[in-house]
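Appendix B.2, paired examples.
Example (i):
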Amino acid sequence: MKSHDQQTHSQFGTVASAYLSSTVHAQGADLQRAAQWAAQTPDACVLDIGCGAGHLSFAVAPHAASVTAVDLSPEMLDVVRIETVKRGFNHLAVQQASAEALPFADAHFDLVCTRFSAHHWGDIRAGLREAYRVLKPGGQLVVIDIVAPESALCDTYMQSIELLRDVSHVRDYSPSEWRTLLAEAGFEVTGLDTWRLRMAFATWIARMRTPEVQVAAIRALFAAAPAEVRAYLNVDTELDFDLEAGWIAAQR
């Protein structure tokens, strides 16, 4: 039986290159915002936790003194390493590690960020404690991730669909949960914004190579979803739907 970290590695190692070219991951106003955020702290030492194919690291790199991109998957890190050379970012390094056990000294980074990763962390509280630990006093954290609805009904459907599509999924957290989790870790929340992302069902499934039996289960859940859930997800006849993303900013 695999551990959660092993399962996450297994899920993403085989699809690493797909995440480099994925429109959802490679584009977005949030990447431009991240670049502007990093530019506000000139010559910062930046950590990107759960870097995936490196899009957030690449966005902040032009404005940072150094960037360290961390991920569980060596295949993902290989993708980042190759792309880093292509882009000429000599100050961007990669490191294999989990969010819950970062191999860095206390108060080492000026900025810590993570994008579309936290919902995979097996222990979100441990991950946030580690982010707090490696940040310098006054340092800033930005979490970009899918956020869950506050409605329990919509939340149940959304988490079920996410897990069926990707068994490494743990939880999308609601805005109120993020505020509580960050406060517990010692952070002061300084901003929380959300926006809608349109997900093309066929691409969303193909990117994760979801087994057909699980695809059928997702289709069944969409078919059975009550009006409130369908309205929240904005499901159409092709099963394309909306997810809500969030920018959560905090300070140590």
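Example (ii):
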Amino acid sequence: MPRPEKHVFVCTQNRPQGHPRGSCASSGCAEIMNEFMSEIQARNLFDKIGLTNTGCMGPCNMGPTVLVYPEGIMYGSLKKDDVKTIIEQHLLGGTPVADLLMPEGVW
């Protein structure tokens, strides 16, 4: 398997309902993870994009969160439709999606 150009980490942290920090699971991270998987498969991008689910990355109240390496770019409060934009503009096009970036004070 070739080394991917980009690696996407999707937070799938699940905490009990009502936990003060919240969790990406309660914000819809499964839908985000599934959409990344579907798009990578449909476009046959396995050699370009690695995808890994992960535990908490910190800003739980701004989930679902996604971290892209090697740049160290974090996106937050994502919706299913944002996945295609991230793939097109950032992962394939090389330009981070400014409207979806975590605020500087957070990441």
